[in-house]
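Task card 7
Instruction: Convert sequence to structure tokens.
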Amino acid sequence: MTATITPSTDLTPKTIAASELELKTDGYCTTNTSRNLFYCNSPERLETGYAQLADDGKYFAKETVTGIGRIYTWHENQTGKTITSDILAYNAGTKTVTITISNRGLTNGTTYSDVVAWKNFFAGSTAITYTVAPKAYVSLATLKQVVTTGKCFGIIANFSIVDSSGANASLVLCDYAYANAANQSNATALAVEQSPGTNRRRGVGNGVYTYMYAPTLEVTNSNKKPGYKYGVLASAGSGFGGQDLRTISGSGSGPLVGDFGIQLNMQLTVKNSTGSTGNFKIALGSNGNHFYPIINKNGASYYRTSDSGARKFSDVMVINNLSAGESVTVNFFTVIPAGCDAPVVVCAYRA
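Output:
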């Protein structure tokens, strides 16, 4: 009987102890590094007492991006004010260009996770195109949000920037927010970090989509569940040598630990070495304290909106009737949503 592979519809979290995992380090990744990730998680928390809003003359991030890429931002409004979050596009060139926004997912609520925004990203959205003349500023209004105090807010969206000939073009994008609309043009300097010294990332990353190859998820009759860590540096035990991490360049530069904003295409090889035909499961979980699982398979998303908790794993794929000695390839899309703690682990086990 041929093995069948399907998404799991039951993501109820369960504990998998560290002692149950057999962590591998032979995974590897490939990424198209030409695509720009406009990334801003600094200041993560907007607070009273810091100069962070356009009303204070500040913006969160301002960077040049080119061609095809993604916008990913995440902040928390603790200013005690209602603010408006916006992305401004500036054309520093001499030719009119257009920017098209698609796959929009927005966060605006009390949860720390953007897992629902990722679900909406995967579902797609009507593409909206803005024309930006030379030396002109244009608000990307489809990404604008009014955020009351106490809310977390963020953006996930793909972009494409071209000139009139269809060639890749560049724009300067600015992530900022204001309490008073009359002050929105005052953002001329970089905002200070929330709790200065926390070193949150902001800038442009080298890639938005990564293939993750895990070649040896071999399940035996031992109690061990073979798995791979990801979202961390090689020095922290990454099963992929840290190759999944993008590098952010700009005002908050460094490796993007946590893979936030990056779409991961999982390519897993699962082998049944138990000696008999059986059913197997692929699970995702965090080796830290918080996790919100999500996968996308064949256009449908499967996810949890509540925190799974410390060292909790959710089954995300099911393999039925896998013969003894047989190997299968399991693939699906996933991300690490905001609010999750890296490293994340993908593992396999016999059901």
